[in-house]
């Protein structure tokens, strides 16, 4: 039995290849056996998680609590099965709870909204067909229904001598929640896909339910910077030693991308979301057919909210000859 009251959480890296790849599941073992996130519901990942847990003398049946960072299948997929074996509590933010629960109304509403976005983004028929095929096959990794315990911003949980605090940081997903705790370095948090060490998490396509996705995400990044974390445990890949610095880098990345979107409109004139996406990302396949235009939309929407572009029937045009985006991004000197 690993004493996680004195050691950091155990990071279990699962080798799945869908979405951002290499998901992390975190184990906090002690009086209660706690997992943060679970991995996709496919046999190889199920086996990998079970094997990895057995190295700590833990089986699925031993799990008492599962804290999910968000509803995406690569994080929530195995929660239902583990719950069926163990009776574990499964906590997830209320914005994502119905999707994790497998509530058909919520699933239909999300699918309908996605199709509406595909129309608004002017995704042509062939890539749209490919995307819809991809999404329907991805449903299989969503896993079993879950009896969820919805949580909200500021909720705290006493587990194994630690206080775990839920911090709602939407953007990449509507319910995305970090879980902060006092760790060996100081203030630490499981951050899911709020910040990742290598890639910038998708905004706009990863959860079409998020309104004004870039603005929402930038606010969450600013908030994360202000949390002054000493270490972050992301949903994918290695721990992040300078979470505020990473968040600032991601903000700078989005500022650059916004400038590129403006350049596209300057060079090519008014354009729909799909066309802007093609200029930014070239030709796309699989989930990127969703993530590419989603990202382009997030930036165009942000420019639209700032009065820098106009939108008519899904076509965006620059409204200023010398646009300034300064007011659209948090000022920071990280
Ligand atoms: Zn995600
Ligand atoms: Zn992820």
Annotation keywords:
10 helices; globular; 334 residues; 39% helix; binds zinc ion; Arc Repressor Mutant, subunit A; 2 domains; Metallo-beta-lactamase, Chain A; single chain; alpha/beta; six-stranded mixed beta sheet; 20% strand; disordered N terminus
Could you explain how this protein is built, in words?
With 334 residues, this protein is of the alpha/beta class. The protein has 2 domains: 10-104 and 139-247, 4-Layer Sandwich (Metallo-beta-lactamase, Chain A); 259-328, Arc Repressor Mutant, subunit A, CATH 1.10.10. Helices cover 39% and strands 20% of the residues. It contains 10 helices and 14 strands. The protein has helices at 43-54, 73-76, 79-86, 94-101, 104-120, 125-138, 213-227, 243-268, 273-281, 288-305, and strands at residues 10-14, 23-29, 33-36, 65-67, 89-93, 148-151, 156-159, 162-168, 177-183, 186-192, 231-234, 271-272, 309-312, 315-318. A hairpin with a 2-residue loop joins strand 7 and strand 8. The two termini are 40 Å apart. The site of one zinc ion (ZN) has 6 residues, from loops.
Topology:
Blueprint lengths: L9 E5 L8 E7 L3 E4 L6 H12 L10 E3 L5 H4 L2 H8 L2 E5 H8 L2 H17 L4 H14 L9 E4 L4 E4 L2 E7 L8 E7 L2 E7 L20 H15 L3 E4 L8 H26 L2 E2 H9 L6 H18 L3 E4 L2 E4 L16
Parallel strand pairs: 3-4, 4-5, 5-6, 10-11
Antiparallel strand pairs: 1-2, 2-3, 7-8, 8-9, 9-10, 12-14, 13-14
The protein binds zinc ion (2 copies).
The site of one zinc ion has 6 residues, from loops.
């Amino acid at each position: 039995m690993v004493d996680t009251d004195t050691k950091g959480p155990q990071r279990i890296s699962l080798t799945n290849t869908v979405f951002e790849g290499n998901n992390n599941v975190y184990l906090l073992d002690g009086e209660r056996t706690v997992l943060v996130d679970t991995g996709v519901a496919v046999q190889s990942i199920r086996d990998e998680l079970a094997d990895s847990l057995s190295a700590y003398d833990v089986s699925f049946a031993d799990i008492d609590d599962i804290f999910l960072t968000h509803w995406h299948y690569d994080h929530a997929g195995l929660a239902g099965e583990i719950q069926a074996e163990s009776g574990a509590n499964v906590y997830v933010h209320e914005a994502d709870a119905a999707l994790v629960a497998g509530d058909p109304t919520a699933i239909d509403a999300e699918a309908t909204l996605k199709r509406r976005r595909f129309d608004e983004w002017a995704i042509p028929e062939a890539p749209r067909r490919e995307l819809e095929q991809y999404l329907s096959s991805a449903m299989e990794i969503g896993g079993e229904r879950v009896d969820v315990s919805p949580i909200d911003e500021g909720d705290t949980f006493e587990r194994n001598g630690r206080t775990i605090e839920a911090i709602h940081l939407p953007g990449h997903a509507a319910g995305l929640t970090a879980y902060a705790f006092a760790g060996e370095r100081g203030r630490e948090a499981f951050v899911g896909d709020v910040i990742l060490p290598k890639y910038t998490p998708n905004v706009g396509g990863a959860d079409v339910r998020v309104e004004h996705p870039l603005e929402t995400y930038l606010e969450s990044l600013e908030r994360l910077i202000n949390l002054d974390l000493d270490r972050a445990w992301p949903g994918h890949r290695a721990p992040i030693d300078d979470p505020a610095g990473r968040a600032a880098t991601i903000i700078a990345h989005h500022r650059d991308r916004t400038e590129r979107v403006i350049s596209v409109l300057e060079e090519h004139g008014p354009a729909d979301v799909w066309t802007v996406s093609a200029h930014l990302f070239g030709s796309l396949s699989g989930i990127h057919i969703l993530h590419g235009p989603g990202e382009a939309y997030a930036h165009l929407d942000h420019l639209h909210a700032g009065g820098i572009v106009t939108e008519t029937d899904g076509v965006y045009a620059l409204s200023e000859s010398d646009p300034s985006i300064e007011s659209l991004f948090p000022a920071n000197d990280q």
